[in-house]
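quick one if you have a minute, typing this from the bus. below you get a single protein, a line of residues and a line of whole numbers that encode the local backbone shape. could you go over both lines and see whether the tokens make sense for that sequence. anything you notice is useful, everything is just below.
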Amino acid sequence: MRSEEIKTIFGNQVRVRVMGVLIQEEKVLLLNHTGLNDEDELWLPPGGGIAFNESAKEALIREFEEEVNLSIKICDFLGATEFISKEMHAIELFFVVEQIGGKLQLGSDPELGENSILKEARWMSILEINKLSENCVHRLFKNLESIDDLFKKKGFFNIRNNP
């Protein structure tokens, strides 16, 4: 079962992750991940874990290349979230990024090898995001009326605390 494999690799530890918010034409780039919830659908911005001896910015640039084949420039720090569940604990650092090269193409997650959990990359409007089930999109993107509302959310957010 894919969710058990994910828990084995990423669970029972604090994981520091980076995510990049890339906006084009009033839409945000999100990736659909499988195996992370009961709905088997979770839309998150490109990003992933920071490796030992790697800066947050280096990690985010690497993750964009691996997951969506895009070169980016990091523009601003947006905020941080903390996610805690029974098996998972993540500190997530969100950055605003700008595309400077590449062509959007769904890649993979090297930590999972052939068992990539990435299903789809899609540019989504706030209207499309708001139509998703609450459990199917990162909570940072919920209850927004416009893309501009996202940039008003600077700070630290405890997304879920269900230990």
User: Anything to note?
Assistant: The mean pLDDT is 85.
